[in-house]
Amino acid sequence: MFNFECPFMVQEILDSVTDSATVVSVDFVTQSGEARTYRGCLDVGANRTQSVAINTESGWKRFSVDRVTNIEILG
Questions:
Q1: Gap between the Cα atoms of 60 and 29, Å rounded
Q2: What are 4-27's pLDDT values in tens digits?
Q3: Cα separation of 58 and 14, whole Å?
Q4: 4 touches 16 (CB < 8 A)
Q5: What is the SS3 assignment for 24?
Q6: DSSP state of 30
Q7: DSSP secondary structure letters along 56-74
């Protein structure tokens, strides 16, 4: 069983990232139930209300705000 973060709280953290150099770590669960972690920089000019783009070492990936189990701003 996964303990999802409140989407409102996740959105507040996402909204606080205003610099494209800020590194964020996001733990989330895919629709198939697989737990994943992405670490990278957000696209600060993009709409980040549902599906959020993050630039990882392996390229651009997306995660859903309502499937996040943990989110951290690393700096």
A1: 17
A2: 788 888 988 888 888 888 999 999
A3: 21
A4: no
A5: strand
A6: -
A7: ETTEEEEEEGGGEEEEEE-
Strand 59-64 and strand 68-73: pairing?
Answer: unpaired
- Tell me the per-residue pLDDT of 12-65, one tens digit each, with 9 for 90 and over: 888 888 888 899 999 999 999 999 999 999 987 777 778 899 999 999 999 999
Which residue reads 């996964």 in tokens? 2
Alpha helices in the chain (DSSP H): 7-16
Q: What is the CB neighbour count within 10 angstroms for residue 20?
A: 11
Q: What is the DSSP letter of 11?
A: H
Residues facing residue 26 across a β-bridge:
38, 71
Is pTM beyond 0.85 here? yes
Cα–Cα distance, 70 to 31 (Å, whole number): 16
